[in-house]
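Morning - 2-amino-3-ketobutyric acid inputs below, output right after.
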Amino acid sequence: MGTKILIIGANGQLGSVLTEELKNKFGDENVIASDLKERDNYNGIFEIIDATDSNRIEEVVTKYEINQIYHLAAILSAKGEETPLITWDINMKTLFNVLEVSRRNKIDRVFFPSSIAVFGEGAPLDNTPDDAYLNPATVYGISKAAGENWAQYYFLRYGLDVRSIRYPGVIGYQSLPGGGTTDYAVDIYHKAVLKEEFSCFLKEDATLPMIFMDDAIRATIELMDAPKKDINVRTSYNIAGISFAPAEIVAEIRKLYPDFKVKYEPDFRQEIASRWPRSIDDASAASDWGWKPKFDLKDITEVMIQKLQEKYKKGSRNKEILMF
Ligand code: AKB
């Protein structure tokens, strides 16, 4: 039987782009997108799934004879701090539901996204290795650190082939992030193209690991394509893209928009960022499944500006409705 994929959280920043890529690779009929609400103008098979309801996940898995699940639904770092217990409940319940449905239905491969948010005090800030001490200070980070261990547990206990990546901040023109600490690095490009002033919620020297969407999607697919015998990390793989601070992205944007205005107004998200790594050691991903990023800050800036200029030229100034 061929590959039949279910994507949970297909309307999100990563999910919406990954869905299109998987459709290109496996065919529209083999990729079932799902989220809490149907996506406007979506071209393909879509099911409404609230992933806190395991019966509903199981129903869709059975209906389409799914054999791979990408579980992308979660509440992110900044948003999660507004309602810590609800965030914990949602992030863990949806993961347990996916793991249990996958175990019961003998799903071949499961993808669970983790994050650099699993790190905190006690981990080296530079070149943070995969096996650094995990001491997350956000509820999102705690849920991801616990989730990684549960992923490994399901692999060890039940042989479920769960694979995971710790994403840095993801930067893309196709979709918008929501509720993260790294979101500024997407919003800033929208403001530059709209010729508006940007208020940055991080300090100008707050260096964080980031990755371009194309690299993030390629990493995900490469990990899921890798032979099972090569996957030696069953918690989650670090992957690095690039690292930069707000002042560096501003300098890069000003090469194209010399009058771009920025003010720094750090808020609680600066506190979160200050505990995260500045850069990531991704040696295990490189040696186990050949991971290598392609895009640096200059490449990212050129593509982001060009693509956003095209989008804004075509339509409205409302960035929410410009995506896809
Ligand atoms: C966030 O900022 O919460 C996310 C992440 C790094 O996982 N983008």
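Note: The pocket of 2-amino-3-ketobutyric acid is lined by residues 76-77, 115-117, 140, 167, 169, 180-182 (CB under 6 Å).

O.
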